[in-house]
Amino acid sequence: MPLNNRSLPSAFAVVQARKQAKLTQEELAALTGLRRLTIIRIENGQNTSVESLEKIARALNMKLTIAISEKNNCAIIKTTNIPKTVK
C-alpha cells in the first residue's frame, strides 16, 4: 500500500526517519527488536502502538512527539534528532 494523504502521519515520519538514517527495514527491525513485518505495516500506514513508535525513535536516536489537533481532527507525529553529547 503506497503512502498517500490518507496514510497515518506515523507512516510518513517512520519512512522519512529510516531513510535519513540510511537503514533498511530489516536493519531498523533488528535495532528496535520489532519484526520486519511490523516495520512494513507501520510504513504502509496501518495502525501501530505508541510503544512501537517509541522503540523506532530510540533506535534512530530521535525524540518522538505526538500532538493531537482538534482543529484538523488528526494526530501529528514528529521526530527530532537528539543531539549527541561530546565527551
Give an account of the 3D structure.
With 87 residues, the chain is α+β, with helices and mostly antiparallel strands. The chain has a single domain, classed as 434 Repressor (Amino-terminal Domain). 44% of the residues lie in helices and 18% in strands. It contains four helices and two strands. A hairpin with a 4-residue loop joins β1 and β2.
CATH architecture verdict: Orthogonal Bundle
N→C terminal distance:
44 Å
Structural class: alpha+beta
Estimated share of beta-strand residues: 15-25%
The whole-number mean of residue pLDDT values reads 80
Layout of SSEs?
Layout: H1 9-20, H2 25-32, H3 36-43, H4 50-59, E1 62-69, E2 74-81
Helix pairs in contact: 2-3, 2-4
List keywords for this structure.
87 residues; alpha+beta; 434 Repressor (Amino-terminal Domain); two-stranded antiparallel ribbon; 44% helix
TL;DR of this structure?
The chain is of the alpha+beta class and 87 residues long. The protein contains four helices and two strands; from the N terminus they run ααααββ.
